[in-house]
Amino acid sequence: xxxxxxxxxxxxxxxxxxxxxxxxxxxxxxxxxxxxxxxxxxxxxxxxxxxxxxxxxxxxx
Length: 61
What we know:
The chain is mostly helical and 61 residues long. It contains two helices and no strands. Helix 1 runs antiparallel to helix 2.
């Protein structure tokens, strides 16, 4: 977990909560919000993968 508490920091708890709420929101006509949630999750997963990649690279040094 990152110690970054910036305005754009996303925790795993937020991602899991948003992913579980997305189908409910999408069913209520919130397609734009659901798309935003999916995009935010994709960004978070890409960032997490990059952190893992860099961590493995650092451990190889």
